[in-house]
Design goal:
- The protein is mostly helical.
- 83% of the residues lie in helices and 0% in strands.
- The chain has one domain.
- The protein is extended and about 65 Å long.
Length: 143
């Protein structure tokens, strides 16, 4: 029974003509406060992750040295290496996001139309352009 309902809904969705584009919806402009918040979150991660890696590395090595166990020291070094790799991956998230937006721009032909606010607020949330998008979105909500 559930399979029939799901297949019927899927068929209706596929056959339903949708002529609305992202540019007409102004999705990125309307959701710019959310993109700006995510951008601030990435900035906070870029600050907090190195501090956490350093503090946890010091604590792990201090425990290993106090215990005078060679296996504990090698485990602490392995753990520090894993944390370092995770930290590097976190630092590459904005680069990956920029690459994805670039691929979307190449696919759509122009980055300035529908997704400029998403990219601007996600990669540089303190920029004046992003603030303009956020102010416009807040003004639209207040109307």
């Amino acid at each position: 029974m559930k399979l029939k309902v799901i297949s019927f809904l899927l068929l209706v969705i596929l056959l339903l003509p949708l002529n609305v584009s992202a540019a007409e919806l102004n999705f990125c402009e309307r959701t710019s406060p959310i993109w700006q918040f995510a951008g601030y979150f990435f900035v906070a991660l870029k600050i907090a992750v190195p501090l956490i890696i350093i503090i946890l590395g010091i604590v792990d090595f201090a425990k290993a040295v106090v215990s005078s166990d060679d296996k504990a020291i090698s485990n602490a070094a392995t753990g520090l290496l894993k944390r370092f790799i995770i930290g590097v991956i976190i630092f590459f998230i904005p680069t990956i996001v920029d690459l994805v937006f670039g691929l979307i721009a190449n696919f759509t032909g122009d980055i300035t139309t529908p997704i400029a606010a998403c990219e601007e607020c996600l990669l540089d949330p303190t920029d004046g352009t992003c603030e303009d998008y956020v102010d416009a979105a807040n003004a639209e909500v207040e109307q």
